[in-house]
Design brief:
Blueprint lengths: L2 H7 L2 H25 L16 H15 L4 H15 L3 H16 L9 H13 L5 H16 L10 E3 L5 E3 L8 E7 L7 H9 L4 E7 L3 H10 L2 H4 L2 E6 L1 H6 L9 E5 L5 E5 L1
Parallel strand pairs: 3-4, 4-5
Antiparallel strand pairs: 1-2, 3-6, 6-7
Helix pairs in contact: 3-5, 4-6, 5-6, 6-7
C-alpha cells in the first residue's frame, strides 16, 4: 500500500491530530534546545554580567517563560542546575530565588499548584542557602500547603460561619462534588468570580468562602449580584488564621478547590 492509499483510509480528523502532534513535539524540542543555550553569554551564578537589575529581570522573565514550554522533566532539571550554579553566590541566589516565587506562585502562572512549583520549593529548602528565618518559614508553610492540597489528598475540615455568625464545619455542607471558591471578602473585584464559575461548575455544589468576612459581607454580596447567581451559591465566612491552620492556600485569592463528596481534592487551582 502506498502513502496516498494509506492517507485515504485515515479519517481526516486523524490526519489533523497526527499533524498537530508532530508540530507539538517539534515545538517542544525547539524550546528545549533554546533553553539549553539561553544563558550563553551570561554567568547567572552572579549578577556581574548584567548592566543593571532591570536587564537581569528581563532576562529571567524570558527564562521562566521558556521553562513553561518544555517537558516537565527538562524544566525541573534545568531549574535545579540553574540554582546549583547560582548557589555559588549568595546574593545572586537570593535575587533569583526572590524572582522565582512570584513567577511560580502568581495566580496566572502555569506552575501554580503544579509539580514544578513543588520541585522549586524542595530545591530551595534543600540548598539551605537562605539564612532568613522568616523567608524559610514562609517557604516551609507554602510547602505544607502544597502537600496538603495536592490532587488526591483529603481537604482538612475547617470551622466556618453562616450569615447569622453561627459556626459549623465545612464537612457539614459537602454532600456531593463541590467547588469551593475562596475569595477576599474585602475585594470588590473578586466578587466577579462567583458569576464566572457558575456555568463551568453547574453540576457541582458551589460554596463561596469569604476570607475575613462576616454577615455584613454576605449581605453586601446579595445586594450587588443578581439573585439567579446568588441562589446557586452557599455563602459562608472564615477567618484567615483558621484557614491557614487547616493549611489552605490564602496567599493568592481567589482560589478554587474542586472536591469529591468525601473532600478528596480533584483539582486545585487559581
Amino acid at each position: 500500500m502506498n502513502i496516498s492509499q494509506m492517507s485515504s483510509r485515515i479519517p481526516k480528523n486523524w490526519l489533523v491530530w497526527i499533524t498537530a502532534g508532530i508540530v507539538a513535539v517539534c515545538s517542544c524540542a525547539d524550546k528545549a534546545q533554546e533553553l539549553s543555550t539561553y544563558w550563553n553569554g551570561h554567568d547567572f551564578s552572579s549578577l556581574d554580567g548584567f548592566s543593571d537589575i532591570t536587564e537581569a529581570e528581563e532576562k529571567f522573565d524570558g527564562y521562566v517563560d521558556l521553562l513553561s514550554k518544555v517537558p516537565h522533566k527538562v524544566a525541573v532539571e534545568n531549574m535545579r542546575a540553574f540554582l546549583d550554579s547560582a548557589a555559588q553566590n549568595t546574593v545572586a541566589y537570593m535575587v533569583w530565588t526572590g524572582w522565582f516565587e512570584p513567577y511560580f506562585h502568581a495566580g496566572i502562572s502555569p506552575y501554580k499548584n503544579d509539580e514544578m512549583f513543588v520541585a522549586w520549593l524542595d530545591k530551595v529548602l534543600e540548598d539551605n542557602v537562605i539564612d532568613d528565618g522568616g523567608m524559610i518559614g514562609h517557604l516551609q508553610q507554602m510547602r505544607r500547603v502544597m502537600e496538603k492540597n495536592q490532587v488526591g489528598s483529603t481537604l482538612e475540615d475547617v470551622c466556618l460561619r453562616d450569615c447569622n455568625d453561627e459556626e459549623f464545619m465545612l464537612s457539614e455542607i459537602i454532600e456531593k462534588k463541590s467547588m469551593i471558591l475562596l475569595v477576599d471578602a474585602n475585594c470588590p473585584s473578586c466578587l466577579s468570580s462567583l458569576e464566572e464559575n457558575v456555568n463551568e461548575y453547574k453540576d457541582a455544589n458551589l460554596i463561596a468562602v469569604l476570607v475575613e468576612g462576616g454577615s455584613y459581607h454576605i449581605q453586601n454580596i446579595r445586594s450587588q449580584i443578581s439573585e439567579d447567581i446568588i441562589e446557586k451559591w452557599t455563602l459562608v465566612c472564615a477567618s484567615k488564621s483558621r484557614l491557614d491552620e487547616a493549611v489552605f492556600d490564602t496567599s493568592n485569592l481567589p482560589t478554587r478547590l474542586l472536591v469529591s463528596a468525601d473532600r478528596e481534592i480533584i483539582k486545585s487551582y487559581h
